[in-house]
Design brief:
By secondary structure, the protein is an all-alpha fold. The chain contains 5 helices and no strands. Helix 1 packs across helix 2 and helix 2 (23-32) crosses helix 3.
Amino acid sequence: MSSELATSYAALILSDDHVEITSDKLQTLLKAANVEVESIWTSLFAKALEGKDVAAMLSNVGAAGSAPAAGAAAPAGGAAAAEEKAEEKAEEKEESDDDMGFGLFD
């Protein structure tokens, strides 16, 4: 078993029990399971998951792309409005080429 995988499982176990994820607790859990892991892995995982809700992270795995950036609330229909603006800009660009007096087939 790889060190990363073992530490990941240990972090999930601690999170599931609503226990704070620390390097010491990860090491203790891994020793109890007779898994030898370098302390760097437990330190990295503890630092990366510090203050994070692991359960919420796992339940929102697929939703990351659709979530607004920096937790900002998106207005209703925000995506549709953005698409309309992009279409308007594309139309304006097409019209500006015609205004120059020459086109592709002239």
